[in-house]
Amino acid sequence: EVQLVQSGAELKKPGESLKISCQGSGYSFTNYWIAWVRQMPGKGLEWMGIIYPSNSKATYSPSFQGQVTISADKSISTAYLQWSSLKASDTAIYYCAVKVAGTFWGQGTLVTVSS
Amino acid sequence: DIQMTQSPSSLSASVGDRVTIACRASQGINNFLAWFQQKPGQAPKTLIHAASNLQSGVPSKFSGSGSGTDFILTISSLQPEDFATYYCQQYYSYPWTFGQGTKVEIK
Q1: Helical H runs in chain A?
Q2: Which helix (H) or strand (E) covers residue B11, if one does?
Q3: Do B46 and A60 touch (CB under 8 A)?
Q4: Per-residue pLDDT tens over the stretch B58-85
Q5: At B99, is the secondary structure helix, strand, or coil?
Q6: Cα separation of B24 and B20, whole Å?
Q7: Cross-chain Cβ contact B34/A44 below 8 Å
């Protein structure tokens, strides 16, 4: 069974850094692209970017290029989304998703940025 | 970027109704389209991939059709558990993009 398990909720202050994770199981982690999706409070889904764990090649949406970094560690079947300096507007739920004959989703990570 | 436009943005329907939601792409995307259902406080759930393929475990009351620029999600007989927000997504070219969502509410 394909599963994506994300790290827990985070409460951070503006300007702080953060790295959240998404661990895959039940499929060949290195062979499928993993995407990250943002959902701001009360809003729709926004595609942020995607990574191929085999070679860590990442592609970003122009809206998120330079704002976040997507990475992966194939030795532990885990993808990451990180920020170097959070803003209040980064408050959202972040989902990872993998397309393996259809899309499988993580449970989401709530990130709250508040002073 | 490819723009995905869903219609309607919201609809009210009764239990047992047949419901259709449309999704239009700003350029051709072949059949690289997925449909998702999201309930409040939950992660999205995949219903359809490749425009018309039912995700494993999804009931057959859901169906998808279309190719190119115009796509339809149909719920054959709406049940209480189907009241949710539905999104389409193209994965033909980067950046992959979502429609704005269609909220299905109880009449």
Answers
A1: none
A2: strand B10-13
A3: no
A4: 999 999 999 999 999 999 999 999 999 9
A5: coil
A6: 13
A7: no
